[in-house]
């Protein structure tokens, strides 16, 4: 056994080791904090041209870094005519400022200063593309006069441009659904399914009022099915003693490469009914379409002369050919969506997306 003096010496030595370890740890943290505050140096490129070097200063505990410590500007955004770029990005970005960019160079970096001045005075942003996100560099004034100074915001690709366009034009976007919203379309098969389902519900229903309502709905389906059957078999329908024959309507081509399509169409404007054929060569693709009541009033409002109020889009889970034809029936003169814009503005999504 060691004597008391030896034990005291060992305790003092261990205490010194602990003090030294704590001091090293605190010193390491100090250096790390200093490094974070000073930032990581990154080269800035516009295209293939190197503009200079900036310090990337983290502003949150989640340190944001550019790939390979290179800031590669892909483009300069359009000018914001009504709102500061900072206000727009603070509104639409899912995050706060991702990082700040400052210069610690002792030499003047003319290209970066010119970029900062251009973005600041012309109310634009420099855009860096990283994956499916855009990093927008917003030129900021600096209290310490450390020019150039940028704040960086991340937004999904295309979101900033869409918002900027609406703000500049003072024109909102409006997105329409099709089925069960603007139109109700049925094939022979869907008519049969609906009629059979109503028969089952009527047989089970005890409330006379509900039975009456479902019976009226079933009669409407039966009448509509008869119209569709006539259209499929002979391209002619009889309604209230009147005969309606098909009119051949040419579909506007989305591009020069698309084939010319002509569809046989019957319109019953008094009933807001249109009969059309998705594939003109296949009669089984025939559908009876009921347009939403008062759609013409809404369309007239949207296309009123004067300042344009809305940019129109369509989002649907339907197949593309079907969706394009349904929209053509709703907007036959292509006043709401120009033919050259259809491919971008009629969006078909899968269920659950």
UniProtKB/TrEMBL annotation:
<dbReference type="InterPro" id="IPR023214">
    <property type="entry name" value="HAD_sf"/>
</dbReference>
<dbReference type="Pfam" id="PF03031">
    <property type="entry name" value="NIF"/>
</dbReference>
<dbReference type="GO" id="GO:0008420">
    <property type="term" value="F:RNA polymerase II CTD heptapeptide repeat phosphatase activity"/>
</dbReference>
<protein>
    <recommendedName>
        <fullName>protein-serine/threonine phosphatase</fullName>
        <ecNumber>3.1.3.16</ecNumber>
    </recommendedName>
</protein>
<keyword id="KW-0378">Hydrolase</keyword>
<dbReference type="InterPro" id="IPR039189">
    <property type="entry name" value="Fcp1"/>
</dbReference>
<dbReference type="GO" id="GO:0005634">
    <property type="term" value="C:nucleus"/>
</dbReference>
<keyword id="KW-0539">Nucleus</keyword>
<feature type="domain" description="FCP1 homology">
    <location>
        <begin position="167"/>
        <end position="353"/>
    </location>
</feature>
<dbReference type="InterPro" id="IPR004274">
    <property type="entry name" value="FCP1_dom"/>
</dbReference>
<dbReference type="InterPro" id="IPR036412">
    <property type="entry name" value="HAD-like_sf"/>
</dbReference>
